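Crash report, auto-generated. Payload:
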Amino acid sequence: MTRLLTLILLSVALMSGQALAADLTVDLHTPTGAPVRDAVVTVTPAAGAAPPASTRLSGPFQMSQEKIQFHPFVLLVPVGATVTFPNLDKVRHHVYSFSAAKKFELKLFGQEDHRTVTFDKAGVVALGCNIHDRMLAYIFVADTPYAAVSDDQGRVLLRNLPDGAVVVKVWHPFLKGVGQTLSRPVTLKGAGQQAFTLDLRDPPASMSSMRGMGN
Ligand SMILES: [Cu+2]
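Recovered output after restart:
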């Protein structure tokens, strides 16, 4: 390769927008210090649009029903994702959502039935079952590829984020406050760490005995 060509390629690379260099660790805990799992952390560049969420969040995406519960409790998908709803129980389920981001109903279906729903709008979709009141789960439809769900340690690690000013948001279904969301402007450069304290309301009585909700 000629030196001129190398220089041209290098300048194109430098001009083509933000460097992807930052790694961000986010720790989530309750006011008493317990880790919070099942929270969704999203990072959005303050200037310019984020790339399509599907560039990093890849499927297959599945919300199964087993032992009269949804699995997982919180499912993160990119805008446009198609989610399958396999029923692993012997009984039938009747899954629905009234959420603005996606209203739908999967009428009584059993193990033999194949059901899918496509989520074409960003937002939070709360799921229920008409037959079993205690079934509850959430699908978080993200419009940024920089997103992840917290693990049992209440931790999220996001790699190769754009350097510069971003907004970090944390959502959890039982977080007190507007939109169940906390938001913080952060300037990323290299490796960074953020901690959030999440004040959670009690989960619905019907499900609190069945899940470790992290609080
Ligand atoms: Cu059900």
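Post-recovery validation: Residues 12-16 have pLDDT under 50 and may be disordered.
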